C-alpha cells in the first residue's frame, strides 16, 4: 500500500510518498513565494497550489508502484474565493500573517460582541480570522464579493480539483471565525448571512474522511490512478501534529517552520481571548493553539540579507555566539504578531546592537527570540488551564540541533523528536493510509531523540526572558506610530495631471 501526501505551505509545497509501514519512499519540494502587494497584505494565487500538486504527483507517483490514496493539507485559515465552478476570482488572502482587516475586526466586534464571538466560536476576531477578511473584500473589492460563491482553503481547493467535491474539514471551519459554531460544530447561519450572504459554504467533514475519488480529468493532469480516494485534509499545523502523534490530551506540538505554531490537545474548550480554541483534527478532540507571525521567516530573511550563505554555516556561527547572542535581544514581530500579544502593528526590534556584532550574533538572537516567544505562549496556555505533559517538535527547524536546544534551554521544556520530521505532508499521508486501512503512528514514526534543557543556562535565560517581556510594552507606542507611517508610505497617491497647453508658446 503506497500513499501520497502533499502539503501547501507558506514558502513551498512538499510531497511525500509513503509505504504501508510509514517508510518514506520519496520526497519532493516546490519552493514558491507569497505576494506582498502592500504592507500587511499577504496573498498567493490558488492556481499555483494545483500546479505544484500536479507537478509533485507526476514526479512522485511513478517511484514505487501505484498510489492507493491521497492526503492533502495546507496553510490556513485562508480566504480563497471562487465562482461556483471553483475558478479563483482573486489571489487567496493568507492566514494571520495578513493583517489588512484591522478596521473590520474592530467593526465586527462592535456588531457581534467580542464575548459573544468568543463563547460561540472559541476564539475572538483577530488577524487569523476569516470573517474580517471577507468583510474587507466586501468593502474594497465588492465586485469580487458579489461574484464569489465558494470559500476554499488549500486543502479543500486541491480536493475540489482532484475529485470535484466541495467540502471543508471541521477544524479548518473552526478557524473561520465567526462563521462556525464551535459548540454545535456547524456553520452558524445568522453570522454567515450577516458576513457572507453570497457564499455557499461547504458541507463539513473530518480531516481523515474520504472526500471523493480522483476523476479521469485529474488523473490525466497528475498521473495518479483514477478512482482512488482523497481525504478531506486540514490545516498544515494540525496535520503536522498528527505526523508526530501529538494528538493526546496534554500533548503540545511545536512546529518549527516559516512561522512557529503551538497546539495543545485538550479534552474541553479552554476559552481565552489571546489564544485560539478550536475543534481538533480528530473527532472528539479540542485544541488550544498559538501561532507566531514569523520564526523561520525571520531567519530566512536574515540569510538573504547576509548574501545567502549556507544555513549550516550560519548555525555554526550562531553556536559560537553563545547564549545571549553577545548582548543582543530581538523582538521577532517582523510581520506583526499573532499570539499572545495579538498586535498586527507590532514590529521587529533588535536591542543592544553595536558595530562589533556579527551575523552569527544576529542569527542567534533570532533563534532566541523565537524561543522566548514559545515561552510566552506556553505561559499563556498554562494560565488558561492547559495541561502540558509532553512536548513534540516537528518541522524543518528541528534539523541541525541548535534551534531546538535553544528553545529547550530558554523554556525549560523537554522536547521529543520523532524519526520523521517532514511534517504536514507526512501527516496527510498518515490520514490517507488510515482511510483505507489501519496505520499506527508509533510504528510509522518512532521517537528518535529527546532534547533536554541545560540547567546551567536557566538563570541566564530567565534574566533575558524578563528583559524580552519588558521590551514590547516599552516600545509598543513607537512601533504603532512607525506602522502607521509604513501604511501611509505605501498608500496609493493621486497623481497630478500635467497641464495642457493650447495655442502658441
How would you describe the overall organization of this protein?
This protein is α+β, with helices and mostly antiparallel strands. It has a seven-stranded mixed β-sheet. A five-stranded mixed β-sheet has the order 3-2-1-5-15, sandwiched between helices. A two-stranded antiparallel sheet has the order 4-7. A hairpin with a 3-residue loop joins strand 1 (2-8) and strand 2.
Break the fold down into its secondary structure elements and pairings:
Layout: E1 2-8, E2 12-18, E3 24-31, E4 43-44, H1 46-60, E5 67-74, E6 80-82, E7 92-93, H2 102-112, H3 114-121, H4 131-140, H5 142-147, E8 150-152, H6 154-163, E9 168-169, H7 170-174, E10 180-181, E11 186-187, H8 189-195, E12 204-205, E13 210-213, H9 216-222, E14 229-231, E15 234-235, H10 236-243, E16 251-256, E17 260-266, E18 276-279, E19 286-291, H11 296-305, H12 311-321, E20 329-331, E21 349-351, H13 359-383, E22 390-394, H14 402-411, E23 415-418, H15 424-436, H16 441-444, E24 447-451, H17 458-490
Parallel strand pairs: 1-5, 5-15, 9-12, 16-22, 22-23
Antiparallel strand pairs: 1-2, 2-3, 4-7, 6-8, 10-11, 13-14, 16-17, 17-19, 18-19, 20-21, 23-24
Helix pairs in contact: 1-6, 2-4, 10-15, 11-13, 12-13, 13-14
Amino acid at each position: 500500500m503506497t500513499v501520497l501526501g502533499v502539503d501547501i505551505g507558506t514558502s513551498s509545497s512538499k510531497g511525500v510518498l509513503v509505504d504501508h509501514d510509514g517508510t518514506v519512499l520519496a520526497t519532493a519540494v516546490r519552493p514558491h513565494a507569497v505576494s506582498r502587494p502592500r504592507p500587511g497584505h499577504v496573498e498567493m494565487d490558488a492556481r499555483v497550489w494545483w500546479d505544484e500538486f500536479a507537478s509533485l504527483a507526476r514526479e512522485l507517483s511513478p517511484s514505487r508502484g501505484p498510489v492507493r490514496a491521497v492526503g492533502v493539507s495546507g496553510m490556513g485559515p485562508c480566504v480563497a474565493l471562487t465562482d461556483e465552478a471553483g475558478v479563483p476570482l482573486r489571489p487567496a488572502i493568507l492566514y494571520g500573517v495578513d493583517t489588512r482587516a484591522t478596521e473590520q475586526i474592530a467593526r465586527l466586534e462592535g456588531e457581534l460582541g467580542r464575548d459573544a464571538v468568543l463563547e460561540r466560536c472559541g476564539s475572538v476576531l483577530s488577524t487569523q480570522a476569516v470573517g474580517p477578511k471577507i468583510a474587507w473584500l466586501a468593502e474594497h473589492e465588492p465586485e469580487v464579493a458579489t461574484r464569489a460563491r465558494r470559500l476554499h482553503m488549500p486543502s479543500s481547493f486541491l480536493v475540489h480539483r482532484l475529485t470535484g467535491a466541495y467540502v471543508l474539514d471541521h477544524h479548518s471551519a473552526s478557524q473561520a471565525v465567526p462563521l462556525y459554531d464551535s459548540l454545535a460544530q456547524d456553520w452558524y447561519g445568522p453570522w454567515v448571512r450577516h458576513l457572507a450572504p453570497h457564499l455557499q459554504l461547504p458541507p463539513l467533514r473530518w480531516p481523515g474522511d474520504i472526500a471523493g475519488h480522483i476523476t479521469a480529468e485529474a488523473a490525466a493532469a497528475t498521473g495518479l490512478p483514477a478512482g482512488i480516494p482523497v481525504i478531506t485534509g486540514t490545516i498544515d499545523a494540525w496535520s503536522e501534529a498528527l505526523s508526530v502523534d501529538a494528538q493526546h490530551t496534554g500533548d503540545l506540538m511545536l512546529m518549527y517552520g516559516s512561522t512557529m505554531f503551538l497546539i495543545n490537545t485538550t479534552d474541553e474548550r479552554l476559552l481565552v481571548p489571546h489564544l485560539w480554541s478550536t475543534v481538533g483534527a480528530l473527532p472528539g478532540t479540542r485544541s488550544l493553539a498559538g501561532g507566531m507571525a514569523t520564526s523561520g521567516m525571520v531567519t530566512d530573511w536574515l540569510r538573504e540579507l547576509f548574501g545567502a550563505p549556507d544555513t549550516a554555516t550560519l548555525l555554526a556561527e550562531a553556536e559560537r555566539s553563545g547564549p545571549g547572542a553577545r548582548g543582543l535581544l530581538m523582538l521577532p514581530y517582523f510581520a506583526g504578531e499573532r499570539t499572545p500579544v495579538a498586535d498586527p502593528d507590532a514590529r521587529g526590534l533588535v536591542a543592544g546592537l553595536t558595530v562589533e556584532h556579527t551575523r552569527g550574533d544576529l542569527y542567534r538572537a533570532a533563534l532566541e527570540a523565537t524561543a522566548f516567544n514559545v515561552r510566552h505562549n506556553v505561559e499563556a496556555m498554562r494560565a488558561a488551564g492547559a495541561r502540558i505533559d509532553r512536548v513534540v517538535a516537528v518541522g524543518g527547524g528541528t534539523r541541525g540541533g541548535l534551534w531546538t536546544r535553544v528553545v529547550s534551554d530558554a523554556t525549560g521544556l523537554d522536547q521529543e523528536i520523532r524519526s520523521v520530521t517532514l511534517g504536514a505532508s507526512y501527516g496527510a499521508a498518515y490520514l490517507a493510509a488510515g482511510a483505507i486501512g489501519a496505520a499506527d503512528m508509533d510504528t510509522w514514526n518512532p521517537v528518535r531523540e529527546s532534547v533536554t534543557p541545560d540547567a546551567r543556562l536557566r538563570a541566564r535565560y530567565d534574566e533575558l526572558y524578563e528583559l524580552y517581556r519588558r521590551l514590547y510594552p516599552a516600545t509598543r507606542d513607537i512601533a504603532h506610530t512607525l506602522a502607521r507611517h509604513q501604511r501611509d508610505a505605501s498608500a496609493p497617491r493621486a497623481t497630478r495631471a500635467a497641464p495642457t497647453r493650447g495655442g502658441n508658446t
